[in-house]
Amino acid sequence: MDGLVRRSPWAGVLIWCVAVLSATVLAAAAVVRSTVLDPDFYGQVLEDERAYQRFYDEVLVDPVSTPLTSDLLDRLPVPQSTITSNLKVVIPPETLRVMTDRQIAEVIHYLKGDRDRLRVTVDLEPVVANVERLSQAYFGDAVAALQQRSEPDFQAFVQRLSELAAQVVAGEAPLEGLPSLPLSHGQAVAATDALMRLVPDAARAGLGPTVQTALDRGDVASALAAVAPVALNDRVRTTAAELLREARQGTWIVTVDIDPAHEALAPVDRARSVTRLFQEVVEPAAAVLCAAALTLLWLTTPSPARRRLMPLGWVPAATAALMALTVLLLRLALDSALFGPPSSWPPSASDLLGDVQATAVDRLLTTATVVAVILLAAGALLITVSWVWQTRPGMPVLTDPRHGPTLTFAVTACALVGTMVAPVAITGSSPRICQGSADLCDARYDEIAQLASHNAMATTADRFIGPLQDPDIVGQLDAGVRVLLLDTHHWERPKEVADRLSSSDFPPELRRRLTRILERVNPPHPGLWLCHSVCGAGALDLVPTLRQIGDWLRAHPTEVVTLVLQDGVGPVPSQGAFERAGLSDLLYEPDADPDRPWPKLEDMIDGGRRLVVFAEKADGPAPWYRNFYRYGMETPFAFRSPDEMSCLPNRGGTDKRLFLLNHFVTAGGGRRLDAGLVNSRQRVLERAHNCERRRGRPVNFVAVDYATIGDALGAVEELNAERRRDDSRFPVGRSPGRLPSAG
C-alpha cells in the first residue's frame, strides 16, 4: 500500500476525499435522525410556536373562516356558543398535544419503514371523559335555570320532542337545542309513548323502559340516543353498534390504516422511499467507506504516530467546513415555507404553518451547525495535539506546566472584568415603569386605558363550563389584564331552591323531585365563591383567589390592579374575605367625592395602595369598597352580534369620571368565534374612539371576553399612546361633559 501511495500521490488525496465525503454523509445522517426522524423534534417545534394555543386563539377565530364555521355550528343541536366556549374544556391543548404526538409517532414509524401503511390513531378517551363531565355540569346548570320558570308547557315539550326525534331519524341534525323540562312520572310516560311511535313494533317492548327511565330523570339526549339507532337505517345501526361495542370494551382508541397509494400521501410516500434508501443503503455504505478510508490514511502516513494524527484531524475539520458551507447555502436558498398552504386557508392558519415550517428549518440547520462545530473541535484537537507533539521543544510557553496557573488567572480576570463592565455599558440606567410603561407614571388613574377581562374567574384553565377566558386569573394578569370583572356567590342550597319553587305552579311531587336532582348534581359547599351562573358549572374559592392576586401584586410592585365585583355576597362577608386574604395593606381608598380627580399612578404605587375594589351593588361600609356606578359609567353589555355594539348609556349614567366599555358578544354564552373580530386592534380602537366622542370622556376599562385572543391589549396601549401625544383631547382637571356627537 505504501508503494502504491508513493507511486501515485493522488491516491492519498483520493483516500482523504473519500473519508471526508463519507464522514459528511454520516454527520448528515446523525442530523436527520435527531430531527426529521425524531418525534420529539416535531413536538418541540410545535411547542416553540405555541401551535396548540394558536389554533384556539388565532386559527379558530380568524374572521375569514368564522362565517363558514358559524354556519356549520348553527346546524348542530347545541348553541354554537356552548360548543366554542367549551371547546378548550372538551379538547384542551394538552389533549390535542397528546393526540398530535401520537400521530407524529405513527408518521415516523411509516417513514422509517416500520409499517407498510400510514396509521391514523386517535385516542378519544380523554375527550369522552371531558364530555361526560361537561354534560353532568350542564345538566345541573339547566336544572337551575328551570327554577325561573313559572309554569311548564308540557304539550309544547312533547310536540318539540317528537319533531326532534323525526329529524334525528331522518338523519338530520336538529336546528335548535334539545327541549329541557322536569317531568312528572305521568308526563314521562306520555312522552315515551310519543317517541315509541317512531320505533318498529318488535323493538318497543324492550326499548320503552329505557326511554321512560331517561325521561323520568329529564335526560332528553339519552332518550333520543336510545331511539335513533333502532329507527335509523341498517348502515347507521351497524355503525352505532360498533361504537357501543368499543365503549363496552373500555377503549376509545380509533385506528385507521390509510392506503399509501392515495394521491394526498404522494409526498409522504416519496419521503419514505428516500428515507429507507438512506437508512438501508447510503448510510451503511458511508460507514464502511469512512472506516476503510480512515484506516488507509493511518496506514499510509509515514511513522511516527504523532505525524499520523495530522491527516486524521483534517478529516473532521474538512467535514465541518463542508457542513457549514451547506448550512449557509441552505439558509440563503431555502424558503422557510417549504409547503405552501392552499389559497382557501385563512391567513392565521397559513401564518401558523409558515411559522412552524420556519422554526423546523431553523432547528434543523441549527442542529447541523452544532454537529459541524463538534466535528471542527474534534479535528482541531487532533491537529493541535499532533502539532504540539511534534514541536513541543520549541513551544515552552504553552507546554510548560509551570505557566498554567498564570495563563488561567489572566483569562479568568479578563472574563470577570468583562462580565461586570459590559452590562453597565450596554444597558445604562433604567427608566421608571408604571403599569408596564415608562410614559404612564405621571398620568392619573382616570386618564389611562386598561384591559379588563369579563367574568375573569370563568376560565378554561380552571375547568369552568362555558368559560369566557382561557388563562387563569394569574395568567390573565401576566398577559396584561389589569382589571378583573368577578362574580361573588354563595353556593346554591336545595333549601333555597325549594323556597323559590314553593311559589310556582309546579305540583308538589315535581318540586320534591327537582330538589333531589339538585342535591345530587349540584351539592352545596359552604364559604364564599367566584362562580359564573351556577357554582356547579365551575367555582373558585374566593379567599385563596384574592390571596393569589395579592401575591401577584407584591411580585410586581409597579402595577395597579382593579377588581369590579358583581357582588352576590354581602359587603361585610366580602370585607372579611379581603382581610383574611391579607390584602389590607394593598387596598386603595377612593375619594368620598366621586367627582374629584384620581391620583397619579406613581403616587398610588409609591403609597403602596395598588388594589382598587368596586362593587356593582354595595357601597361600603369599608372605605375601600365603593359602588362602581357612583364613580363610573358603562355601555350596554347584552350584544348578540358585533354589529349591535353601541355607545348608548347604561348603568352609571353619562357624567362619571370612569368609563367602562363592555366590548364582548353574548348570545347564549360567550362567542369565541366572534372574539377574533371583536378583540382586533382596529375594532377596539374604532369603538373606543366613537364612544369617547359621544361621552366626552376617555375610555378607562376595555372589558373583553377571551382577552388573549386578538389584540385588545395592543389597542389599549395605543389609546394610552394617543393620549400622551395629545393631552388636549381630555385636559387635566376638566370636568366631565359631553362632546359633540360624531354620528
UniProtKB/TrEMBL annotation:
Regions that span the bilayer: 281-300, 312-334, 364-385, 406-426
Disordered: annotated segments: 724-743
One Pfam family matching this protein: PI-PLC_X
InterPro entries per record: PI-PLC_domain, PLC-like_Pdiesterase_TIM-brl
Transport found in the keyword field: no
SUPFAM superfamilies the UniProt entry points to: PLC-like phosphodiesterases
Top-rank taxon: Bacteria
Name listed for the protein in its UniProt record: Integral membrane protein
Organism: Streptomyces ambofaciens
Phylogenetic classification of the source organism: Bacteria, Bacillati, Actinomycetota, Actinomycetes, Kitasatosporales
